[in-house]
Amino acid sequence: MATMESLIGLVNRIQMACTVLGDHGGEGMSLWEALPTVAVVGGQSSGKSSVLESVVGRDFLPRGSGIVTRRPLVLQLHKIERGTEYAEFLHAPRKKFTDFAAVRKEIEDETERLTGSQRQFLTDQFTLAFILLMGQPDSIVEDIEMMVRSYVDKPNCIILAISPANQDIATSDAIKLAREVDPTGERTFGVVTKLDLMDAGTNCLDVLEGRSYKLQHPWVGIVNRSQADINKNVDMMAARRKEQEYFESSPDYGHLAPKMGSVYLAKLLSKHLELVIRQKIPSIIALINKNIDDINAELDRIGRPIGVDGGAQLYTILELCRAFDRVFKEHLDGGRPGGDRIYGVFDHQLPAAMKKLPLDRHLSTSNVRKVVSEADGYQPHLIAPEQGYRRLIDGSLGYFKGPAEASVDAVHFILKELVRKSMAETVELKRFPSLQASIAAASNEALEKFRDESRKTVNRLVEMESTYLTAEFFRKIHESDNNPKDDKHSNAAGPNADRYNDYHFRKIGSNVSAYVGMVCDTLKNTIPKAVVYCQVREARRSLLNLFYAQIGRKEKEQLGKMLDEDPSLMEKREVLAKRLQLYKSARDEIDSVAWK
What we know:
The chain is α/β, with parallel strands linked by helices. The chain is 60% helix and 7% strand. It contains 23 helices and ten strands. The protein has helices at residues 4-20, 31-34, 48-56, 100-115, 141-152, 173-181, 205-208, 227-231, 236-249, 262-302, 310-333, 340-355, 359-362, 365-376, 386-398, 401-425, 433-467, 471-481, 495-498, 502-542, 545-551, 556-562, 567-594; strands at residues 37-42, 73-75, 77-79, 85-89, 92-97, 126-127, 130-132, 157-164, 188-193, 220-221. The strands form two sheets. It has a seven-stranded mixed beta sheet with strand order 6-2-7-1-8-9-10, sandwiched between helices. Helix 10 (262-302) packs across helix 23 (567-594), helix 11 crosses helix 22 and helix 16 runs parallel beside helix 20 (502-542). The chain starts with a helix and ends with a helix.
């Protein structure tokens, strides 16, 4: 089995580490709250500091008249293999104090720094796992009571209730508080001080023997050093011997001598602490394992540390790019929302834009007459106004470039928006704002190139329709025009008269409109194909090719700059890593110590 000293020492180390790393609150029970502590409580000048020094066996607390201890003190002592003790403060966690006069000076200096020359009381604690809680004047009684309760209310807190012997136990501040927070007395140890200062002929046997107020644990009497002893620098070992002599020679307390004094109190507390710690080991291990799992999950969420060599940095960048690319493709392919908006451009926006083209005005009778007449020039057309037809068709098809280019721009806007959304949804990238900016810039540059190529392609599609007309369509029209049954309004006066016949111009406009309608149906199908091929397909296949080429030429320093993180995130990871190491070490130590 583990020794009491090894278990308590382990708990002390965990408590200090938890405090340094800030694990002393939050949701649920923290490791700090799960570990036992001892709170020394009592009224002003009841002897709390002296009792604490006697139990510790060191002289290290400030001395003086009136209110000396003006803030809570959490003390932690470590004993190393050679038997040398040292103290450590939360505000200076890496500084070990082996000179306890220096500990006193540090307490005085830090208190003075925060409170100034005024006799001000602070609720901020020293963490130097003994806890010293003091009484103060009535003006701040309420604040002090709330602060004291914040410690002693916790079920893991062992209460060392200090009452002076020359005070009625019924009015003891410490016992009153202990009764309220620990009505069963399971956590309370009663300590009577100043037995040597009682009036002649009186004693405190009713209290020490449990008749005045019974506790589950035995009462312990303490005789602290006198002010004269302190002035003479009588050390703690000599004071302990003097205290033991007092009890052994006392006619009132001689029969209780083996169970009186600071040495016995320290043993009693240590034995109880060992029992409590052993009882709590399973729950402590369970809590440690839960904290380890939570920290690992959080580290996975914010990202693990990155290697410092160029190869590791390049690998990390490529992995992050792949993660972003996966999210982007999911948007395009339907795994995430957004890609459906591209189909909306082809199914709604493009047809609606084509429907709004001013073809009726362009193919009005007056405009057809004007265009055909200008195309004929001085020589009227002989059979059909072919040049007029071509000009009318060219003019009509030219309008289609607008909707075609608008479709290209609309898809380009959607793709840029999907890049932005994918960047925000790629969790792994959030820790690297510089890399995010670089990937976004390279992606948008690639999309600009895809858009330019797509615009050229759709314009070519329109121009191709103008460049080569479908002759078969017009041959059928010509055959229809030459059929007398189908042309009731034909003028037999010959081609010269056709030039000035309104019906003839309306017929030309109708024929051109039919042909343009046929081309419109074709473009409704080919423009989306061109846009998808030039923009969507390329974005899916090679969005980051430009970026890959760029980073392949970068030096290690440049790669490192791209992986610069938010300082607050780096600090958070460092704290989490320290906590993780703390919990793993604590678990290993508990496993190795608790079952020896």
